[in-house]
Amino acid sequence: SVDPKDNSDELFVPPLAVPKPIPARHYFLFGKAFDATSVDPKDKKTCQRVYENIRQEVQDGIDALLEARKLDPYALNGLRRNAYRRIFGKDPPTFPLESVKPSNNRIQ
C-alpha cells in the first residue's frame, strides 16, 4: 500500500525572485473626496451613477499620471536618476505638476 503522506520522491523547486537593480519612480495622485452620505444604498440607479463617476475619476487620474510620466526625463532611467542624485545630492526633478490635468467629473 502507498502512504499518502510519503512525498519523498517529489522535487521542491523554490521560486526565484530577482529584484530590479534600480526601481522606477512611483506616481500618486490624490483625487477629490466623494460624499455619498446622501445616497440611499437601496437606490440602485443612483448607486450605479455614483460608482461610474468614481470609477471614471480614478481612471482619469491614472490616465493623467501616465501622460505626465512621459514628461519625466528620469521616470524609467534609474541609472540616470541615480547619477543625478550622486552629483547634485538631491532627487532629480519630475514632470511639471501643471501637466496633470484635473478631472471635471462631478457626482450629479
Question: What is this structure, in a nutshell?
Answer:
The chain is mostly helical and 108 residues long. The chain is 34% helix and 0% strand.
Structure notes:
The chain is mostly helical and 108 residues long. The chain is built from 2 helices and no strands. It has helices spanning 44-69, 78-88. The longest helix is centred in the middle third of the chain and has 26 residues, at 44-69. The protein is flat, with a radius of gyration of 24 Å. The termini are far apart. 4% of the residues are buried.
Features:
mainly alpha; 2 helices; 108 residues; single chain; flat
Give the termini distance in whole angstroms.
70 Å
Question: Percent of residues in helical segments?
Answer: 25-40%
Major β-sheet, in short? Answer: none
Question: Could you say which overall geometry the principal axes of the C-alpha atoms support?
Answer: flat
- The overall pLDDT, averaged over residues, is 83
Order of helices and strands: HH
- Structural class label: mainly alpha
Low-confidence stretches: none
Radius of gyration: 24 Å
Instruction: Give the beta-strand count.
Output: 0
Number of distinct helices = 2
Strand content: under 5%
Give the helix/strand layout.
Blueprint: H1 44-69, H2 78-88
